[in-house]
Structures are given as C-alpha cells and as structure tokens.
C-alpha cells in the first residue's frame, strides 16, 4: 500500500482535532507551571508526578504533534513551488503575529528590569540582554525573524527556541512530508530511523535544529498509519499502549542520566506519539479531551505558551518590590488568570484574524489541491 493511500485512510479530518487542541493546551500548562516555579523560586522535587510535568517533555510532545497536524494541512497537496509558498505563508501568519506581540512585551519588561538591580537574570531561564551593555538594537531586530543567522535563543525570551525550531523545520517540512508519504512503508521507516539514530550527528555536524527532524517525522509516520489499524485495539490494548508511552515519555525527566541528550529526547518523542495516537483514536480518552476543548471553546495554547514569560516576569518584580505580598498559590492563580485573559483577547483579535488572512491570501488563485487549511 502506498503512503498516499494509507494517509487517505488516516484520521485526518479537521473536526477530529479538538482532542489534540486540548492535549496541546495541557502541554502548554505544563510549561507554564515549570516556568512559574523557576521565576518565583518555588522548590519542587525532580521527577515528581512520574515525570509527566517536565516542560521539555511537553515541548517534545509539541513537536511530534506539529508533525502530525502539519501533515493534515498538506494531506491533499501535490508537490509544487506554489503549494510550498502557500504553506510557508500560512505558517508566517500563524506563528509570527502573536510572537511579535510577546516579543514587544518582553522588550518592555526587560528594558524596565535593565534599569533595576536584582530583578532580571535567572540562571535557569537566562536573558543575556540583561547582562550586556546598551539596548543591542541589532539583536532585537534579529529576534523578530526566528530564522536569521546570529539570532540568540537565550537573549530575551527563553521560550523562543521552540519557535526557532518550528520556523526552521517549516522551511523544509512540505518536502519531508511529500517524501515520507510517497515512499513505501519500509523506506519511510528507514528514513525515520536515520533521523532518530543520527540525531546526535545531525546536531554536531549540520545544525542543532536538524536533530529535531525525527520528532516531526514521527508525526508524519503517525499520520500514515491507517485509521482501521487503531480500531482493532480494545481497551486493554490501549491501556498497555498508554503504560508503555508513559514509561518512554518519562525518559525526558531522566535526561541527565543518559550519555547523550538525544536518547532521552527520542524516547520521550516515541512516548508522545503514543499519547497522540490515544488522543486521536481511543474513544475514552478522545471524548474526554473533546469535552474539555468544547468547554474552553477556543484554542489558546499558543498564547499561553508564548505570553506567559513576560507576564510572570512583570509579576515577579511587583512581588519582589513588595507590591504583591501574597503566597505562592495566589501568585500562581493571578499569573494564570492574567495569562489566560491576555491569551484569549489576543487569540480573538490578533491570532484568528491573522490566520484567516493567511488562508485567504493562499487561496486566491491557488489550485484546489493546495488549499488545505493549516
């Protein structure tokens, strides 16, 4: 069976993605929680909650999930420069507008911190802007690009490194998707194995971003698996799959015990793939996640992920200056409420209009096969 025919049978319909939106939201809150602990210096035990609340694990899940969702956006497209251009343009309108808002907020917060003593630098979430003289306008301009040579991931917004990976992978993702869905199953699996086993070599000898290719490729391979395959699994089989996925996912919280970081990254990535498969195909889990998403109505996971850092830093300074003399629990609740509120407002008035604009621009004069939503 060809990859194209397999993917047509995959569970790729957009209305089935509510469960994935909820899963992405949960992952965003995992990142929020860990960064809150770091910024407000709340002590937590390493490996608590069986490693499920590890922020790097959540980011790994993001990457595998992106590989799957982006595959859906390309599911009916034919390889062409126009389709490639349309895909890239939609990604720009999807990622950049909200990121630029978060970057502007971070600039305002860090420039304020730059003028104060003892309010800025956090060893676990470095912002080297605070340690360097001057405003460093050139580096701030580079920060707006996500892909320009010389852009520092640790300069201002610590979460930006994931967007840098997303933006750079997006530059080649359509070609990777078209290749992996047109190869036969064995050849596609061999290519995936090359990305996984060669991730450390790619990191050292190509560019660091290349080591993440296998995580996005896992999403493509999950997309290739026919929906009929998952229907054969009963409740016990799903429980076994989730247990194995949990065991693999937990490897991220044990990353310092491995000789190479990539080992824990990809064990976690395989575990993430199992979680995503269950969210898509196991009715028990899928229905629960879909109910959660319907209750929330909007997918504000990206806003929570990219906006929480400047909000937490601003509140940290109010807290250190004595303007917010409350407990850690109240700090968490206030931080969460402000992040949700701002993410919701910007989702309605920035994120959605920009995504819709990107779709309209790529639909005008585009061939029907290239107009899949991203």
Automatic annotation (TrEMBL):
Q: Spell out where the chain crosses the membrane.
A: 55-74, 95-115, 140-163, 175-200, 206-223, 235-252, 264-282, 302-320, 326-346
Which GO biological process entries does UniProt record here? polysaccharide biosynthetic process
Q: Which Pfam families match?
A: Acyl_transf_3 (PF01757)
Q: Which domain of life is it from?
A: Bacteria
Q: Which GO terms describe its molecular function?
A: acyltransferase activity, transferring groups other than amino-acyl groups
Query: What are the Acyltransferase domain coordinates in residue numbering?
Result: 19-347
Q: Does the keyword Transmembrane helix apply?
A: yes
Checking InterPro entries in the record gives:
Acyl_transf_3_dom, Acyltransferase_3
GO CC terms on record?
membrane
Keywords, A to Z, come to: Membrane, Transmembrane, Transmembrane helix
Q: What is this protein called?
A: Peptidoglycan/LPS O-acetylase OafA/YrhL
